[in-house]
Design goal:
Immunoglobulin-like; four-stranded antiparallel sheet
Length: 157
Amino acid sequence: MDSTTLLALLSVVSSFVLVIVTTLYVRESKKIREAQTNPNIGIWIENLGRLNSIYLVIENVGLGPAYNLKFIVDPEFIDQKGIKLSEKGIIKSGIKYFAPNRRIQYYLVDWITPADVVTGDRKIPKQFKIVVNYENAIKKRFEESFLIDFSHLSGFT
């Protein structure tokens, strides 16, 4: 094999390697861009230091805004006044725009005692699930499910 053929072969192999490296770089750049522009919704419960009140916390911990949030509660959560969570405020109406780092603290129920959780005296379930559906700025859809579990709060008074 002469030097011209060897140089041509080396050029082809180098070009092929460069194409592979560039493709991997483009994929990684896309992942980084998505991570920097996608919303990430979190939902949990907290006492928030307020006596006898438990709050549902909804927060966009992502770097991008979330649009058209819709919530599904399963099984239905009914508060002490007999009102279904799915019939209240933002859980019922949804949220059109939820900015990055925005946090909503939504009153849920008065303090849960061990008897409430274990025996169901107030017919408050030990746990329920909230499913949230939302979109990012380019209409990519997301669905996340959050288990709301009161058992870790029982016994704290």
